[in-house]
Design a protein that fits this description.
alpha/beta; Aspartate Aminotransferase, domain 1; 2 domains; seven-stranded mixed sheet; about 40% helix; about 15% strand; globular
């Protein structure tokens, strides 16, 4: 058969998503979902939906949802665009701000979708290694600018380590960069309150900052695919009016998103429970000799010491055989580590029981 693919598409490897179990009994601690269900208001919103309304197109730009998001972050509606999941937000940023055959910069290691989007767009990747403490190197901005990168993507809290870059450092970075800084805050809802982290105001002081937020983690709606970008009007306007797909947020997603976002007390309670379980799990893992950096996300990056009875990949496979999925990355800096999403207390207790059996 003729090969109609573009050359860069033919050469690339697509995104690899986390394993999805085929049964309800498997404990999923591998894809960083919220272990608690969304607010009951989501069920009410779904029950109130009428099939007859689906014959009409949805509100084109999800303005009602944009308004409540803007109010929460003290910005204007024209500084918000709602997207079909965080992945669409990233694709829109690439499409809008990156010329083909130019560069996208990331702090390495990072979200594995970034290089996939770059390859699709026929753009190069600039990988800049984080230091031994998972922090940005001092010459990060200079390296990005020297490479001529139009867009820099920075996950904060960082994935897969969970470490947090302070707001002041992000502000300095935005000032130093020649291109757009996209702060991917997929896990922001799980930051410890005493960190006093706030970033939305960066979109007011820095016209090159985009902030990505998602409903997948903090609002327990990973199955819905809903997210948003915050930025200056100059950054958001071309996305809303030029590069965004028409009617990109369906009627159901808009209704469910509103229900979830309007029940902030419920969402905040799930965040508190995740933070509590994160602290308990980190302590229990440490008692087994499995250390992890302080995490502000809903996961822990756990190092398996070289003297352990089983190495990281063996632990991953054994846990899988015992009905628990965690994540292992076969890359040089991460091959001796496993990433564990924070589960319920029952999930975490089961995990610790199996690891105790394996390692003691």
């Amino acid at each position: 058969m003729p090969d109609y693919e573009r050359d860069n598409i033919r050469r690339m490897v697509g995104y690899t998503w986390g394993e999805q179990p085929n049964d309800e009994a498997t404990i999923k601690l591998n894809t960083n979902e919220n272990p608690y269900p969304p607010t009951p208001d989501v069920d009410k919103a779904l029950a109130q939906l009428a099939g007859a309304n689906l014959r009409r197109y949805p509100q084109p730009t999800a303005d009602h949802l944009r308004d409540v998001i803007a109010s929460k972050h003290n910005v204007e509606r024209n500084q918000v665009v709602v997207t079909n999941g965080g992945d669409e937000a990233l694709r829109l940023a690439v499409t809008t701000y990156v010329d083909p055959q130019t560069s996208i910069a990331v702090a390495e290691p990072s979200y594995s979708l970034y290089p996939v989007l770059a390859e699709i767009h026929n753009a190069d990747m600039v990988h800049i290694a984080l230091d031994e403490n998972w922090a940005l190197p001092v010459d990060f901005a200079a390296t990005v600018n020297a490479a001529g990168a139009n867009l820099t993507c920075l996950v904060n809290p960082h994935a897969p380590s969970g470490t947090l870059t302070p707001r002041a450092q992000l502000s300095d970075l935005a000032e130093a960069l020649n291109g757009v800084l996209l702060i991917d805050e997929a896990y922001v809802d799980f930051i410890e309150p005493d960190a006093a982290y706030e970033s939305a105001s960066l979109t007011q002081s820095n016209d090159n900052v985009l902030i990505l937020r998602t409903f997948s983690k903090g609002y327990s709606l990973a199955g819905m695919r809903l997210a948003y970008l915050l930025g200056s009007k100059g950054l958001i306007d071309p996305i809303v009016n030029k590069t965004r797909d028409s009617y990109n947020i369906d009627h159901i997603s808009q209704a469910v998103g509103l229900a979830a976002f309007n029940d902030q007390p419920y969402a905040e309670e799930t965040w508190r429970q995740v933070r509590s379980q994160r602290q308990i799990l980190r302590k229990a893992l440490g008692q087994l000799g499995l250390s992890s950096p302080v995490s502000h996300a809903n996961f822990l990056l756990v190092e398996v010491p070289s003297g352990a009875r089983f190495n990281a990949i063996e632990i991953y496979h054994t846990l899988k055989e015992r009905g628990i999925l965690v994540r292992h990355f076969a890359t040089p800096r991460l091959q001796d580590k496993i990433r564990i999403s924070i589960g319920t207390s029952e999930d975490n207790n089961r995990l610790i029981a199996i690891l105790t059996e394996l390692l003691s």
